[in-house]
Specification:
Elements lengths: L2 H8 L15 E2 H12 L13 H9 L10 E2 L1 H13 L5 H18 L3 H37 L4 H39 L1
Antiparallel strand pairs: 1-2
Helix pairs in contact: 5-7, 6-7
Amino acid sequence: MDINKILDELQLDTRLDIKDIPDIDLYMDQVIQLFEKKFSPTKRNEEEKVLTKTMINNYAKGKLFFPIKNKKYSRDHIMLISMIYQMKGALSIHDVKQTLETLNNQIVEEDFDLLTLYMSYLTLFDQNLDIFNSGVKNHMNDIQVEIEKLGSKEKTYLEKLLLITTFTEMSNFYRKAAEKMVDNMLEEETKRKQ
């Protein structure tokens, strides 16, 4: 199994850069086109949608981002939607809302500089991708050691099986840690309001 080929096909380095976000406000259809153009290579299959009107409307109704004006989405909205797009794969919509609630309030009430935060987010994205890629190679080495112990003829299948279980375990570990952080944010917010 060529893990490097698989990682290349995933195009995990795909992200919405600052330069990809127009300086002008966009209508919903334009936001959808922007995300579709940028993230379509990362879709699992052709039927999968990157972003839909229903998704954006649900994010707005769920107050995952601050209200739009004149049916247009600002650069700040697009940066938030990009972050939501990444988080929704691991967290519930409720958890994403909880995570972004204070940030949305700061944007509205304090004129918070989201651009600087988003640039930090992108820097960490790149670092996380590097950590992931090197981690996958370490997992592959560990799995090959374990496969040799089994002495089976089905090495390719068992290698894939153990890699899938490793990926799902790691995903669950990170998701549970993220959920715990969301719970901690809620507890701190509750204490602050008392």
